[in-house]
Amino acid sequence: MDYPPEIERMHQAIAQLPGVHSVCSGIDDLQGITGDDLRLPDQAHLPHGALRRTNGGLTNEALIQFEFQLEPSATAWRSLEFIAWFVRDRARGGEFLQIRPFALPPEHGEQTQLGETLRWHIDLFCPDTGDDLSPQLARVAELAKGLELAIRLYGSRLGQDELK
């Protein structure tokens, strides 16, 4: 899939962290989503807790979501802790941003899914989104730039030689 350069830059920033893989993203229009809609399977990826607080999306609100997976390693856990700090720090600074886990049910039919479906979502809530996504893409570019800077500053704590 071809992503806008701003989105691709964020993918690359996340993917360079040790133990992180399978970075992808999407955008959803949250306007019109109701609390009842969150029961539907095609809404499973949405941040249910946040949306239930407002009974769905706000007027002209979009969600840009980055998803990634981790290797089962101590290195990957350090990277996750680093990303969690970065997201928390940006949220404290005023960004409408959160990180959360996502997983599928332990079983589906006869198939065991437990241990195979854990992913992490970085949710960027974008109020006042119109037809022009340029302002939101500029926010993503700033987010990516901030993550790149944090990695340069603290990469040695992650094992700089392990950065991709």
From TrEMBL:
This is Uncharacterized protein. It comes from Singulisphaera sp. Ch08.
